């Protein structure tokens, strides 16, 4: 296709004389009314809702009368009347749906904490989660028969089931017998939370459509089973949103680079798969209404494959809108279709009105429909049209979603547009090949494996883009989530959206935008005042895990634990300016302490790795050994009582005591949440810059009591609270340390209940200043000769 510089003058003139038709805003306005109605219906009590809706109707009638007298166009009056009507309709539907759920007999039983038994149909795939004491499964079930308090009830109530891992095998669409205790559930779309007893009993198998969909999903996984972990996890996620096998560090890289939408079912998935199906149908000679029928069948098949959950239905609707917008007069058709889709979805499922995923999906689709064509035409003066479109689509979608993404994450990605642009060429082939592998796998496994290899090669490029994007000096900048901060960001996005066409049409403006984009991504942004000049210790915000850095000298640090994944600890060390790690201590081998090892090793000079003697879990210990061997870094176990100086840091090993088990066999049990591995954590007393620090790993009460007996009278300035502030602590020991600062390394909204108020309360009552990474971000301890002070990143 010719570049813009090859276009004939008369063609350029015609293009300017006949600009793209503007979007039809009537249906989007109705959609906004529907959205407002959904929010009102979900949040207002019945009496308040009636008053608000009455006021809206009266105000609408008064404004309509006034506009009519002033000669307002009939179309505008009809649009205003329709907006009021749709607002009232969705608000009433939402209120009725909420009332039906709340008034269901199941909800009443849940309020009383009743023991029940009954039958239900599984409406979601089971999801295995990690809990404080053991793994558990969450699965949605629509209960149809219930027995409680001597009564048999016929109901139709959505319930969230919390069960043991044996429920991970239940199949979507099957009817199961269940028993347990009902409790009130969070969210007004659920009648209750059922804590199930015992194993599931399948009464009726899923129907043939569900079984067929399950077979294809399993075939997709099997087709890429021979590929590396990142590839075999990413292909099912791209095709049908199955992210169950996705490595945690890759998921974090996708978040950093703005590629997370690829991991969930989205309109893009449907557009690619149904679009490929339509191409094949055209090639086979299908035309006219039969082609529309093929498209409809493709949409239904996609929904079955990706599951009929609300998020999938939403994605299917947005994908159908995108398909419509790809045809002639796409902006007007797409804007109308988007308005209709939003209105219908809110009528069917009012809870979308306050779903962040719904907002992101609608905004991305709107950006692609409204902004992308204008930006594409502006850039087509300097670039080939296909390249201009490849840049415009992800840029428009990203800009439209930026305020909502910032509200959710507190960050604005600087690499998202570039990452999406680079990944885009591989997304379509990977998605189509992944589905093809799954379908072929039902007939011929060897052929499916070959097609799966091709899909794996495609996603390997996407993995590379996410890894490299997350590793740039400034992949994202922190942004506040206050109304003022988000309001400023929204205004900036609107200004950029309006100014972009004018800037991109200009050769100088285009060059300026290109240069600025490269500079922002490649050149690290300054962070005034961070780290503080006299810092001695940092607890890095790495989520649910530990990663601490003791300042050993200029650009050097002793690292204690590496957190759960590489990217987070790597970024923290970059922020601190640490490029030499003379010593890395891994207190024990649990993933939340050792999983980020590669992030410490990457691009840094590491002198040695020291570990605990108890190689548990064995697979994690083996992974540490392999990573260290590849980097050429020796691994050793320090002796109890060993003392040495590393740069400006003095370290003494206080635990585990001699005689602790060195292998997993015969390891004694441990009280509380953990295991022998927790109590075998390296416990280290450190001194740096005149500040003494007790680094405790995840030791629990048995090991804490041994520490108190072996080192009586121990006093320190700073305490790293054991096990992320778990409630299982020897408070007598913690309070006896007389620390002025306590650091809690913990993940936000973790499922373990960390940190516990039973631990933080006594520490604070004793005058200890407590810093938490989940609320404060990186925690910096500053020395300087006086009492240590705490400086936070947030």
From TrEMBL:
Highest taxon above the source species: Bacteria
Keyword terms: Cell membrane, Membrane, Transmembrane, Transmembrane helix
UniProt xrefs under Pfam families: Competence, Lactamase_B
Region named Disordered: 1-25
Metallo-beta-lactamase domain span: 544-748
InterPro entries, per the entry: ComA-like_MBL (IPR035681), ComEC_N (IPR004477), Competence_DNA_uptake (IPR052159), Metallo-B-lactamas (IPR001279), RibonucZ/Hydroxyglut_hydro (IPR036866)
Keyword Flavoprotein: no
Gene3D superfamilies, per database record: Ribonuclease Z/Hydroxyacylglutathione hydrolase-like
Transmembrane spans: 47-67, 79-100, 259-281, 288-306, 312-328, 358-375, 387-408, 414-440, 447-464, 484-504, 511-530
Biased composition (Basic and acidic residues): 7-24
Subcellular location: Cell membrane
Topological type in the membrane: Multi-pass membrane protein
Family annotation (CDD domains): ComA-like_MBL-fold
Chief subcellular location: membrane
PANTHER family for this protein: DNA INTERNALIZATION/COMPETENCE PROTEIN COMEC/REC2, RECOMBINATION PROTEIN 2
Name of this protein: ComEC/Rec2 family competence protein
């Amino acid at each position: 296709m010719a570049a813009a510089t090859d276009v004939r003058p008369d063609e350029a003139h015609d293009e300017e004389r006949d600009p793209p038709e503007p979007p039809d805003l009537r249906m989007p306005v109705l959609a906004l009314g529907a959205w407002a109605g959904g929010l009102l219906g979900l949040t207002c009590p019945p009496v308040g809702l009636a008053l608000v809706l009455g006021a809206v109707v009266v105000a609408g009638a008064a404004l309509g009368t006034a506009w009519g007298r002033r000669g307002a166009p009939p179309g505008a009056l009809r649009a205003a009347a329709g907006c009021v009507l749709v607002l009232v309709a969705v608000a009433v539907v939402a209120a009725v749906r909420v009332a039906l759920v709340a008034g269901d007999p199941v909800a009443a039983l849940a309020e009383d904490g009743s023991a029940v038994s009954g039958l239900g149909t599984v409406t979601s795939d089971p999801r295995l989660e990690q809990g404080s004491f053991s793994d558990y499964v969450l699965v949605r079930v629509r209960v149809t028969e219930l027995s409680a308090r001597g009564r048999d009830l016929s109901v139709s109530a959505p319930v969230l089931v919390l069960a043991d891992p044996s429920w991970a095998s239940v199949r979507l669409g099957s009817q199961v017998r269940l028993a347990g205790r009902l409790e009130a559930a969070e969210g007004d779309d659920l009648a209750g939370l059922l804590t199930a007893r015992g194993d599931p009993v399948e009464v009726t198998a899923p129907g043939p459509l569900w079984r067929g969909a399950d077979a294809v999903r399993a075939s997709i996984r099997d087709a890429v089973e021979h590929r590396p972990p990142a590839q075999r996890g990413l292909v099912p996620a791209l095709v049908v949103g199955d992210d169950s096998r996705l490595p945690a560090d890759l998921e974090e890289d996708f978040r950093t680079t703005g590629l997370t939408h690829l991991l969930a079912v989205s309109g893009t998935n449907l557009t690619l798969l149904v679009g490929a199906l339509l191409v094949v149908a055209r090639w086979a000679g299908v035309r006219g209404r039969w082609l529309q029928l093929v498209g409809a069948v493709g949409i239904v098949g996609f929904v079955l494959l990706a599951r009929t959950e609300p998020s999938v239905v939403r994605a299917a609707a947005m994908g159908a809108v995108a398909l419509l917008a790809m045809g002639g007069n796409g902006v007007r058709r797409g804007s109308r279709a988007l308005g209709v889709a939003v209105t219908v979805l809110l009528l069917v499922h009012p809870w979308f009105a306050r779903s962040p995923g719904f907002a992101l999906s609608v905004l991305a689709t709107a950006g692609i429909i409204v902004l992308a064509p204008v930006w594409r035409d502006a850039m087509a003066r300097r670039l080939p049209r296909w390249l201009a479109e490849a840049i415009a689509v992800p840029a428009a979608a990203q800009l439209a979603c930026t305020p909502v993404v910032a509200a959710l994450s507190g960050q604005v990605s600087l690499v998202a547009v570039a990452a999406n642009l680079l990944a885009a060429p591989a997304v379509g082939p990977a998605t189509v090949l992944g589905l093809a592998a799954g379908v072929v796998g039902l007939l011929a496994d060897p052929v499916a494996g070959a097609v799966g290899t091709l899909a794996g090669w495609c996603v390997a490029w996407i993995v590379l883009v996410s890894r490299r994007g997350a590793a740039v000096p400034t992949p994202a900048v922190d942004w506040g989530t206050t109304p003022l901060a988000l309001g400023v960001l929204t205004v900036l996005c609107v200004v950029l959206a309006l100014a972009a066409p004018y800037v991109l049409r200009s050769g100088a403006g285009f060059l300026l935008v290109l240069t600025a984009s490269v500079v922002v991504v490649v050149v690290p942004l300054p962070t005034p005042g961070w780290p503080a000049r006299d810092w001695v210790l940092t607890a890095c915000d790495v989520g649910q895990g530990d990663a601490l850095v003791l300042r050993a000298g200029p650009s050097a640090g002793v690292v204690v634990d590496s957190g759960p994944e590489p990217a987070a600890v790597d970024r923290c060390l970059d922020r601190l300016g640490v490029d030499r790690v003379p010593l890395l201590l891994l207190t024990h081998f649990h993933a939340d302490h050792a999983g980020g090892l590669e992030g410490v090793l990457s691009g840094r000079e590491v002198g040695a790795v020291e570990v605990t003697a108890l190689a548990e879990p064995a697979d994690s210990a083996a992974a540490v050994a392999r990573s260290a061997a590849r980097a050429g870094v020796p691994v050793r176990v320090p002796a109890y009582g060993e003392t040495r100086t590393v740069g400006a840091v003095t370290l003494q090993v206080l635990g585990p005591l001699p005689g602790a088990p060195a292998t997993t066999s015969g390891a004694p049990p441990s009280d509380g949440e953990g295991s022998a591995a927790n109590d075998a954590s390296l416990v280290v007393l450190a001194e740096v810059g005149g500040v003494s620090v007790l680094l405790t790993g995840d030791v629990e009460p048995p090991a804490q009591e041994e520490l108190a007996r072996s080192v009586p009278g121990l006093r320190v300035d700073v305490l790293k609270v054991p096990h992320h502030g778990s409630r299982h602590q020897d408070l007598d020991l913690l309070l006896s340390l007389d620390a002025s600062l306590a650091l809690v390394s913990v993940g936000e909204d973790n499922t373990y209940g960390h940190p516990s108020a039973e631990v933080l309360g006594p520490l604070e009552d004793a005058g200890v200043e407590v810093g938490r990474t989940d609320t404060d971000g990186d925690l910096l301890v500053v020395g300087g000769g006086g009492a240590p002070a705490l400086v936070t990143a947030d």
